[in-house]
Write a structure and sequence with these properties.
This protein has 345 residues and is an all-alpha fold. Helices cover 82% and strands 0% of the residues. The chain contains 15 helices and no strands.
């Protein structure tokens, strides 16, 4: 991955993290901290003071840290961003001021990184627009689910997603692993494991999601059509736009649609976008083992079988379909971008 793609990837990851952090904050405020015994105004004042008023002094401190480290070294900002995510997660379970402080730290660190990457790309603010926009989606979804009492399942899902995104951000930014220098057998093993995991996840999520609108033969037929057409569209779009762009577009779109999936149109669109990555996983693994196409195909179909087992055995409690679909989409995004990148290197 060249430096330009690297910068774009960082902005994309930060944008997803922005949605996740704001989602957690809204989920916790409305699902845990606001209660009949506490006046909402007090909660809003405390949270907003910590989340927004503290960003100015924190920004001054962060600028001083970055200046001492050198303008081109973003490690202080990366550390601040990661601390913001961690404090947000702990704030969901502990206290309101820690939740707000985590939000403030993330925005300061993530904003600093985005500004510098935007400048490096000469994007003239396009990167900043990409970074700030998903926050509104996160707040909207978190508010709705918080008011409906989906607190701890939502927190658990978002904790996993944010921790995975931190790992991916450090891998891309610090580049500790040069894929081109990896031995070929190591590349094949890495790609196989990640593609296999994505297929297992897709299989399980597809079975475990239960939608209120899917209660007639016609709606079930439309859902099947969405799955089938999504798989077909994924192959064509990947061939024209490239695998990385297709993975990002399809799985981010799926995550957003699934959050609104109790409405039939969004649920069907979510199924369409979610299944667009099926041919990408197969094609990526086929490229990794060009002399063994039968094995590549068989590995992934075995993954479909493995994904069925947790569902039929009820090993994993079935959660809200909206959260499950959103989580499955974003986890698949993080996992699938790595093998797609490896094969591009």
């Amino acid at each position: 991955m060249n430096h330009m793609d690297n910068r774009k990837a960082i902005i994309g990851i930060l944008s997803l993290q922005h949605a996740g952090v704001d989602f957690l904050c809204a989920l916790a405020v409305y699902g845990r901290y606001i209660s009949p015994s506490v006046h909402p105004l007090n909660i809003y004042l405390i949270y907003n003071f910590c989340a927004f008023a503290l960003q100015m002094p924190l920004g001054v401190i962060a600028d001083r840290m970055t200046d001492k480290a050198g303008l081109n070294k973003l490690y202080p900002a990366l550390i601040i961003t990661c601390l913001g995510i961690i404090f947000t997660i702990f704030g969901c379970y502990t206290c309101l001021w820690l939740l707000g402080l985590g939000n403030a730290l993330f925005h300061v660190g993530g904003g600093m990184i985005t500004i510098r990457e935007d400048d490096s790309l000469s994007a003239k603010g396009r990167g900043l627009g990409t970074f700030v926009a998903p926050g509104a989606l996160g707040l909207f979804a978190g508010t709705i689910l918080g008011k409906q009492g989906s607190l701890y399942s939502g927190i658990a899902v978002m904790v996993i997603l944010l921790l995975l995104s931190i790992l991916l951000m450090w891998i891309i930014r610090t580049n500790p692993l040069s894929f081109t220098s990896m031995p070929m057998h190591s590349r094949v093993i890495l790609i196989t494991c990640l593609c296999f995991t994505v297929v297992v996840l897709r299989s399980y999520v597809g079975l475990a999601m239960s939608w209120p609108w899917k209660n007639t033969l016609m709606m079930s037929f439309l859902a099947v059509c969405a799955v089938a057409s999504g798989k077909t569209a994924g192959g064509f779009l990947s061939a024209s736009l490239g695998a990385q762009k297709t993975v990002c577009i399809s799985l981010v779109s799926a995550a957003v649609c699934f959050l609104l999936g109790n409405h039939a149109i969004f649920g069907i669109l979510g199924l369409f976008f979610f299944n667009m990555t099926m041919p990408i996983t197969l094609y990526t693994l086929k490229k990794a083992m060009p002399d063994l196409p039968g094995l590549a195909f068989g590995i992934l179909t075995f993954g479909l079988f493995i994904g069925i087992l947790p569902y039929v055995s009820a090993l994993i409690p079935v959660s809200d379909a909206r959260l499950l679909g959103c989580a499955g989409s974003l986890i698949s995004l993080v996992l699938l971008l790595i093998p797609v990148r490896v094969m591009k290197d």
